[in-house]
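Lab meeting, item 3. Inverse folding demo.
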């Protein structure tokens, strides 16, 4: 064999290059499975079975409810409220907190693409809140929802708009497929701002995303760097608001179309700040959870076998309750005309749970320990997933660039369609800071403090999951619609309308 290779120099060179490439891939895989010391120091302890069991028992006996943290909700204001995306995770908690503090159902309107289907919104006062089904990518539909007449008992009150509606597509990064995020997240936000002005709103607080500050991870480390254990560039990042005070980055400097669109939307909202319409934005940390419809906890609970390469990854998470509280904290500051010139107005604030970041191992161990439904982690090698992600992206872009191919080649469906290179930038170590938002109002902060920790919030979600599944068919798991699957549904609906219209 060796003589054969010597006699064929080109073949021997190819074999040597291939062997070196395999060694390079193995070393890169090792790096991608490690946690840098800087990150490890931020989360030195792991959740134990005893801690999880104790927390679960406490929450099972005394579940977290809006009544239980009512003292933390900012006091009632004599206003009326329009909540775009009010059927969703953050918007739904805003509605529930408004009701808990004494706002009447007549003073709240949900504007959303889908009707509320969260269990905690289908009974009590929440079930009586007005709902207007709306596609905010349409200026006409948005105006119609905002201009609908209010109940006479509240029609005279000043109007606050909480804009939480968005589509989340975390895996697409090409401008070729940017249209969907642009239509809903950018143009939709402009429609909301315009409609809010015409409806006479004087406060608008929008939900953006801490993922705006994430830089694309440069996975392919030069060989001469990797042996000295130099991580891929941006392999760990701090999520803060510093980028907002710099020029808006170019599209390719965001990890995907979604954060690029949210950054543009954030600038639209913040630049609209004036005495007549005081505005600001809340950036939830990467990984919002708090209901079985979320992607972070609910998405994992829904699987019997959970394939992942991220168990060692450390990230900050934030419960929807905490995000909603931050919106109401912001509104309390902006409720007065003079707030237009305050340091809080016209800017974003990052929000996370009031505790150090955790690892995905903690989350997976929590589910394995507490959930009554089956759950098992299937470890994957990250480099294999990286290599597979590129052909999936190329195939998807080919179908987008040459639509006629869809007649002969089926589109990818399910979760595999989201396995693209961009996804690895949000599957790395991401640590958020509450430092600015938690500063006193007198110092330019929101005075924000979280209601519950990540441990409490995630354990509470499993309590609710187990309770729901005790009433469900034996051995079967309930199906919930996550924000990513909702985005897929909306995209399909838009595509169908275009097809009928011949667009």
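The presenter then showed the designed sequence:
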């Amino acid at each position: 064999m060796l003589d054969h290779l010597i006699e064929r120099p080109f073949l021997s060179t190819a074999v040597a290059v291939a062997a070196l490439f395999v060694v390079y891939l193995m070393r890169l895989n090792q790096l991608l499975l490690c946690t840098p010391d800087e990150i490890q120091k931020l989360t030195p302890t792991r959740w134990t079975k005893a801690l999880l069991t104790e927390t679960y028992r406490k929450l099972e006996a005394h579940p977290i409810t809006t009544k239980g943290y009512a003292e933390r909700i900012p006091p009632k204001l004599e206003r009326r409220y329009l909540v775009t995306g009010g059927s969703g995770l953050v918007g739904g908690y805003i509605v529930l907190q408004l009701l808990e503090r004494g706002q009447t159902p007549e003073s709240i309107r949900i504007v959303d693409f889908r009707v509320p289907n969260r269990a905690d919104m289908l009974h009590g006062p929440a079930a009586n809140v007005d709902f207007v089904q709306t596609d905010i990518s349409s200026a006409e539909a948005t105006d119609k929802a905002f201009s609908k007449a209010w109940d006479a008992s509240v029609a005279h009150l000043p109007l606050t708009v909480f804009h939480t509606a968005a589509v989340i597509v975390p895996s697409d990064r090409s401008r070729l497929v940017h249209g969907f995020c642009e239509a809903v997240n950018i143009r939709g936000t402009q429609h909301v701002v315009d409609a809010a002005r015409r409806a006479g709103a004087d406060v608008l607080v929008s939900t953006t995303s801490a993922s705006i500050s994430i830089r694309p991870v440069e996975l392919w480390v030069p060989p001469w760097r990797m042996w000295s254990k130099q991580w891929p560039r941006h392999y760990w990042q701090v999520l803060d608001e510093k980028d907002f005070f710099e020029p808006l980055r170019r599209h390719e400097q965001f990890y995907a179309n979604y954060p690029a669109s949210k950054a543009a939307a954030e600038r639209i909202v913040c630049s609209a700040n004036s005495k007549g319409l005081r505005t600001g934005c809340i950036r939830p940390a990467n990984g919002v959870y708090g209901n079985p419809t979320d992607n972070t906890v609910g998405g994992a609970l829904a699987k019997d076998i959970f394939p992942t390469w991220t168990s060692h990854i450390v990230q900050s998470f934030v419960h929807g309750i905490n995000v909603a509280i931050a919106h109401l904290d912001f509104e309390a500051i902006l409720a007065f005309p003079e707030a237009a010139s305050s340091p809080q107005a016209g800017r974003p604030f990052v929000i996370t749970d009031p505790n150090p970041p955790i690892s995905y191992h903690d989350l997976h161990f929590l589910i394995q320990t507490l959930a009554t439904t089956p759950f098992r982690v299937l470890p994957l090698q990250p480099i294999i997933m990286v290599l597979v992600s590129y052909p999936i992206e190329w195939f998807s872009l080919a179908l987008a660039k040459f639509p006629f191919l869809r007649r002969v080649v089926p589109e990818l469906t399910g979760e595999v369609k989201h396995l693209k290179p961009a996804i690895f930038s949000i599957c790395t170590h991401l640590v958020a800071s509450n430092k600015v938002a938690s500063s006193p109002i007198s110092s330019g902060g929101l005075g924000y403090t979280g209601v519950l920790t990540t441990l409490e919030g995630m354990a509470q979600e499993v309590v609710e999951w187990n309770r729901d599944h005790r009433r469900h068919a034996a051995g079967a798991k309930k199906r919930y619609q996550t924000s990513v699957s909702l985005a897929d549904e909306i995209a399909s609906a838009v595509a169908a309308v275009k097809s009928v219209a011949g667009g």
